[in-house]
Amino acid sequence: MAERRTALITGASRGLGRALARELARDGWNLIINARDPDALAAVAGELGHATPVAGDVTDPGHRAALVRAVRERGGPDLLVNNAGTLGTTPLPRLADQPLDDLAAAFGVNVLAPLALVQALLPDLRERRGAILNISSDAAVEGYRTWGGYGMTKAALEQLSNVLAAEEPGLRVWWVDPGEMRTDMLRAAGEDADAAPPPEESAAALRRLITDRPPSGRYRAADLAGAR
């Protein structure tokens, strides 16, 4: 019988993180799932089976240490999914009005916390020839008005991923634009979230990426979904 694989997914209580957790649970993965709301996270864990909820803030070093312990207790990581994120200031401001304290906090969630988890789990991931999936955005590469602060954080996450892929050729490092999704985050950004497709569509595309293990690089969920 094949050994059960283990994944850590941050931001898994709703939206894309929850949808991806469901996809991997159906494939028999052991899951360590994170979110700040313990009740919402426990509810998701109850649906999944083979899931360990560890609630907390990914910017907290103590919480990250608890996540790493939980992953190692389940046999070690085969996959790290850095999905937890924040828009930062809402309503989204023009750069001329961007509060710098909010921007610094957004970098903490969207860039520094993912890097810290990568650093903590790299020895295990190298040993298991695992994979890292960082969730990005088209705002990282497009000049959308009022999306500058958030876009900067995602651009930084993309370059982090790009360099990590060059430095760790034994791993798969993917950074993915999931596209617009019907999520609370898109709604908080002031967009018409109800007109967007559900996150389950992007999650199915990400499952294909994880299953097929293509080379490290930047991908779009729309392209993965259309590939045959």
From TrEMBL:
Task: Check the record and name the InterPro entries matching this protein.
Answer: NAD(P)-bd_dom_sf, Sc_DH/Rdtase_CS, SDR_fam
Name any one Pfam family assigned in the record: adh_short
Recall the GO molecular function terms of this protein's record. oxidoreductase activity
Q: Which PROSITE patterns match?
A: ADH_SHORT (PS00061)
Check the UniProt entry and state the signal peptide residues, or none. none
Oxidoreductase: is it a keyword of this entry? Answer: yes
Q: Does the keyword Oxidoreductase apply?
A: yes
Q: Which family does it belong to?
A: Belongs to the short-chain dehydrogenases/reductases (SDR) family.
Q: What is this protein called?
A: NAD(P)-dependent dehydrogenase (Short-subunit alcohol dehydrogenase family)
> Which species does this protein come from?
Actinomadura namibiensis
